[in-house]
């Protein structure tokens, strides 16, 4: 009976691993941007139309943009 030999294991390629990791990180960043955009839209819809509400929401967005929240 013929025996099919399995292909030899590919040599370790750290550059390929780094590229794959970079691609995964970029995909996660993109997903986070989409979630942030969706949450900002929810925040805008839930913010009262009174001037105080707009000022508070703007301040909250500014703090988020600065990374303080």
Any overview of this molecule?
- With 69 residues, the protein is an all-alpha fold.
- Helices cover 70% and strands 0% of the residues.
- The chain contains 2 helices and no strands.
- The longest helix is centred in the middle third of the chain and has 33 residues, at 14-46.
- The protein is rod-shaped and about 75 Å long.
Quick structural gist:
With 69 residues, the chain is an all-alpha fold.
The SSE string, one letter per element, is: HH
Report how far the terminal alpha carbons are from each other.
67 Å
Helicity level: 55-70%
The total count of strands amounts to: 0
Mean pLDDT rating: 85
Count helical runs.
Answer: 2
**By helix and strand content, what is the structural category?**
mainly alpha
Instruction: Based on Cα principal axes, name the global outline.
Output: rod-shaped
Strand content: under 5%
Major sheet: size, sense and barrel closure?
none
Radius of gyration: 24 Å
Which residues sit in consecutive blocks of at least 5 with pLDDT less than 50? none
Task: Lay out the secondary structure.
Blueprint: H1 14-46, H2 51-65
């Amino acid at each position: 009976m013929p025996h099919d030999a399995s292909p030899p294991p590919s040599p370790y390629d750290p550059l390929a691993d780094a590229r794959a990791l970079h691609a995964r990180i970029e995909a996660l960043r993109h997903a986070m941007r989409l979630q942030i955009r969706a949450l900002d839209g929810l925040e805008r819809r839930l913010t009262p139309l009174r001037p105080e509400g707009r000022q508070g929401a703007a301040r909250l967005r500014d703090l988020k943009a600065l990374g303080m929240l």
